[in-house]
Amino acid sequence: MATSTVEQYPPLLSLAVHEFRTPLSVVVGYLRMLQRDPDNPLTDRQRKMIEEAEKSCVRMTGLVAELSDIGKLDSGAVGLQSKPLDLFSLIGDVAAHVHEAQERDVRLEVRGEAAGGSMNGDAARLRTAFDALFRAILRENAGPALIIVDRRRVVSDRGTHAVVTVAADAAVQEAYARLRRPFDEKRAGLGLALPLARRVIEAHAGQLLAPQPREGQEDDPVSRSSAIVELPLVE
Mean pLDDT, consecutive 10-residue segments, the chain of 235 residues? Predict the structure, then answer.
């Protein structure tokens, strides 16, 4: 029986990661040798060009690492830790270290429940996921602006969930109250951080969502510039 496209995907991704990593490591190695060669000192112009080339290689290496993580999560080759944690406290700590848009006077502020978000999960991967999400929303808002991370513990017939809304100060309640759709991961400048974040959230039985746009307004700024994460809590 022929192998399906879905079954071919994990090994193909693994091969791609390997094939990208090998030449990148060679290029980075030679660039560093040029920088440190005492017999052939570089001019300022040459040094600047090599530094920029090295930055681009480091960026590509990061993308390859993210691609590798996505492949491992999709194939089940890597498992997430499942340890008790307080999601609300974790989110507050992540937000305190995000300074993505301060130069544009776009600030991030955490509100709502500071503790009580008890769940079992992989704290390190959740930190990375929320960091990517916060940076994505900050990039969507022109300064000056105040972006709110609103933490709520919601009890419904589906159980107890954390609902984390990330939106402009004036739009938090509207974003929270609207119907929801899948979050648009296609954001420039963040590499594969958002597709990876979605997979981590879904691996914790959660969802990464966005408010539905108003009818006839596909470019609705509240929809584009907001995100909602739902994660199950321990009751």
Answer: 56 81 88 87 91 90 88 82 96 91 87 94 96 93 89 92 95 93 87 92 95 82 92 90
Give, rounded to a whole angstrom, the gap between the first and last alpha carbons of the chain.
46
DSSP tag of 192: T
Q: Which domain holds residue 17?
A: 5-75
H or E segment to which residue 165 belongs: strand 159-168
Q: 153-156: long-range contacts at Cβ-Cβ below 8 A with a sequence spacing of 24 or more?
A: 153/88, 153/113, 153/116, 153/117, 153/233, 155/235
Whether the pTM exceeds 0.70: the reply is yes
**DSSP at 55:** H
Say which residues have a Cβ less than 8 Å from residue 27's Cβ, sequence separation at least 6. Answer: 53, 57
Domain end (from 40, 75, 110) = 75
Three-state secondary structure call for residue 120? strand
Domain count, the chain: 2
Which burial class, exposed, middle or buried, applies to 214 when counting CB atoms under 10 A from its CB (0-12, 13-18, 19+)? exposed
Q: Are 137 and 44 part of one and the same domain?
A: no
Is residue 128 domain-shared with residue 102, that is, in the same domain? Answer: yes
User: Within a 10 A sphere around the Cβ of 137, how many other Cβ atoms?
Assistant: 25
Q: Could you tell me the two tokens for 63? A: 């993308």
Tell whether 52 and 167 lie within a shared domain: no
Structure tokens at 176: 């929270």
